[in-house]
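Ticket 4471: requesting a sanity check on a complex prediction with adenosine-5'-diphosphate. Repro inputs:
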Amino acid sequence: MAESRRFLQGATGDWELVIGLEVHAQVISEAKLFSGASTGFGAAPNSQVSLVDAAMPGMLPVINQQCVSQAVRTGLALGAAINLESVFDRKNYFYPDLPQGYQISQYTRPIVGKGEIVIDLEDGTSRKVGITRLHLEQDAGKSLHDQHPTKTFIDLNRSGIALMEIVSDPDMRSAEEAGAYVKKIRSILRYIGTCDGNMEQGSMRCDANVSVRKPGKPYGTRCEIKNLNSVRFLMRAIEYEAARQIEIIEDNGRIVQETRLFDSDRVETRSMRSKEEAHDYRYFPDPDLLPLRLKAEWVAKLKAELPELPDEKMIRFVEQYGLSADDASVLVSELDRADFFESLAKGRDPKQAANWVIGDLLGKLNKTGTELFAAKVQPEQLGKLLDLINEDTISGRIAKQVFEEMFETGKDAADVVKERGLDQISDEKALKGYIEQVLNANADKVAEYKVGKEKLLGFFMGQVMRATEGKANPKLVNKLLQSRLSKED
Ligand code: ADP
Ligand code: MG
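Returned structure tokens:
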């Protein structure tokens, strides 16, 4: 695996960035981690709160097997060790939206231990990033500060929903690597359906631990930037934070370990609080919950039932469809994209299908900010367009124009071709007419061609295509031109 390290330049020379990430992923489950209340998004405030979530005296938490199974499946997909015995602890702190006065989390004995994932970088190289651990914990409620001029309201709907906290080793060396890591984690979680990965809605959030050091030296003191809710903000925050730390150290200052917030409007990080030490939380095993014991056979069954993961799919795409690793990587990075490609490629040329999905469709989605599922062109529609090209009804160039209109209007490819009279000209007599026209207008070039300047064939081709507004059947024009030009006259 290639090294993609890049160093940051300071007044005193090279600096290396060191990044470790903590991803909080909301578990896909109908009920909360320790209660039967619903996890549905967007319900009226406090309509999904059980007595357990509201921390009424005497209420006892009961573990939800679905959440455990989701955490185990996630651990398996991250290539991580599953701990057959884990323990839930109380992490004590006060938040107005945490009525228990503590969060049930896992500390010394998490459900998932060490693992590793491969991240894919822009330049086509990849790198391994270690997973330190994954543990289960409860989410807190939400304080609403904008409902009343002088009061804060509390919504406990989110209180008690299961979160997986996925902690990485400090293995990333650039903002790009951190971004690629979050994208890969999100892709894996979506593939296996354990988290929807929706960062805008807050179902996936990320804290970045950032430090800098001189290459080869021990790790420096880190700062933690909290609650980054998009990959773009994560990368910006890391870049800002690294520059801030380098400047302080080069100014003979010292980095203080602390928690910082990212201000996305001003593109800077600001101090929030000095970092608490773990002992401040007075962690202790929750006496209401027994240690969680899993059966090895149950874990093995979950493992056997995991769907194909992105890395496996990528290898299959290269082998089965003959795609390049780069193309396969782009296609498998999102499950719906991979599925789109596979339905399109069915019974068609896979490379052509891949080019259309990656080049034309993804380009258009990006430009218009459209999600794939919402696109008016689905595999069936795009497939019909490719069929028109392959039947020589339209040329590849005309197909691009047809696609534009299909994407905007959702019209059928054949209808667009008919309405706009874009059918390919495959009538030999008509084409010969255009060829004569072009050759007559370029008698000098024809003479050059005949004394050996054969690359002019491309020029004549281009002229004929132009004369027909791109509608001529290129294969046929090529054939007709060659035979016409080889004739003595
Ligand atoms: P805490 O309990 O304070 O959150 P952890 O030991 O769990 O501390 O580490 C949290 C994250 O910080 C991990 O992702 C880890 O990889 C990262 N980390 C640890 N040391 C450094 C460092 N010197 N620079 C950058 N990241 C670091
Ligand atoms: Mg932490």
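Notes from triage: The chain has three domains: 8-302, 305-420, 428-486. Leaving this open until the requester confirms.
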